[in-house]
Amino acid sequence: MQLPRITRKQFAIFIAFVAFVIFATLVVVYREPIVSFIADRLGTIEIKTVQKVVTQEEVVIAVVKKASPAVVSIVEKQTVLNPFSGPITQQQGIGTGFVIRGDGVILTNRHVVSDTDAKYTVVTKDGKEYEVKEIHRDFAYDLAIIKVAASDLPMLTLGDSDTIQVGQTVVAIGNALGKFTNTVTTGVISGIGRGIEASSGFGTASEYLEDVIQTDAALNPGNSGGPLLNLSSEVVGINVAIAVEGENIGFSIPINTAKPVVADFEKYGRIIRPFLGISYFVITEDLARLRDLPQGAYVQSVVEGSGADKAGVRVRDVVTVIDGEKITKQTTLAKIIISHKVGDTVTLSINRNGKELTLKATLGEAPSD
After folding, report:
1. What residues act catalytically?
2. What are the helix (H) ranges across 234-316?
3. What is the pTM assigned to this prediction?
4. What is the rounded distance in angstroms from the CA atom of residue 149 to the CA atom of residue 133?
5. pLDDT one digit per residue (tens) for the chain, 369 residues
6. CATH topology classification for 69-148
7. Which of 31, 130, 169, 243 is 20 to 30 Å apart from 12, CA to CA?
8. What are the CA-CA distances from residue 319 to residues 283, 304, 354 (Å)?
9. Which CATH number fits domain 160-268: 2.40.10.10, 3.40.20.10, 3.40.50.10860, 1.10.150.170?
């Protein structure tokens, strides 16, 4: 007797039926263990998510605990004449600084300690007061190094501002409003390489700042001179200003800008900067196109006896090129000058009322006060 042939289609249906029966049997027998397994896995995923949030918070807390003891408040003391009681001493917290060497070397902003007639005191987080013995001001950038008589102070590590990225989390610590010491705010790096007109926040005149870091970490008057930290507790910026016309738009000087200043101070005991001897307003490419002006540095004043003065630079000149480098938003006059040494001679291309001139200037040493 010949057995009936099974077609491929019938065989596939049979295999599918057998597989379904086996699967249904497994589901009935092992339903509870499978459900329990899935629930455990979902619970683990949920727990891990919560732990990630807590870890981020703990990182910020760890940064603050490590860095805050090295952040100091700077207090200004002035003697004023009271018509009823005679001379009295007034003091107010005006800014922030941070210790970079345990023997009392502190980095801050120049505008925080700009008054040459005032006396300054440093107050540490634990309330100890130290009289400022030395002030070294950098007029190329808004930086200053101050020195107090101390030893074994906690200090901060300087990071690498060239490696920062937009969106990176940062922490700012400072003497907010001159009275809330070691205030902590967090945010992100909003921009790099900014050039802005900014104010220090105490009603002082605005100043043009080049190549600064923008952050949305809240900065207030009194934060000037404080550190902007990455999540490794390293200083990546020095908080310097807030935008005049905006909110939560703060700016910091990249720490790599300050490193040569610190190196010179440690080597020579003072800040050494090459000095052309002009103050200027930057004519950007957009402004040049809009106003039909040459792009470059519009000279607002010339320091008497400086290299620029001796070379014949005048007010209202526009410096367009230095040593073959065109002055742009990225290649600023300050960057070009800082790359030279005191005593170097530079070639300036000048636009004076539409006429092109070439002048040679010898760079002097920037005044320290």
Report:
1. 111, 142, 224
2. 255-268, 285-291, 307-311
3. 0.71
4. 7
5. 454 666 666 667 777 777 777 766 666 665 666 656 656 655 555 555 555 555 778 899 999 999 999 999 999 976 665 565 555 555 666 899 999 999 999 999 999 998 888 899 999 999 999 999 999 998 778 999 999 999 999 999 999 999 999 999 999 999 887 678 889 999 999 999 887 765 544 444 456 677 899 999 988 888 999 999 999 999 999 999 887 676 778 999 999 999 989 998 999 898 888 999 998 888 988 888 988 999 999 999 999 999 999 999 999 999 999 999 999 877 888 889 988 989 999 999 999 999 999 999 999 988 766
6. Thrombin, subunit H (2.40.10)
7. 31
8. 10, 18, 12
9. 2.40.10.10
**Tokens for 166?**
């937009």
In this structure, what token pair is assigned to residue 232?
């490794």
Please indicate whether the domains covering 69-148 and 160-268 agree at the CATH topology level.
yes
Phi/psi of residue 24, nearest 5 degrees: -65, -40
The shares of helix, strand and coil residues in the chain, as percent rounded to the nearest 5, are: 30, 40, 30
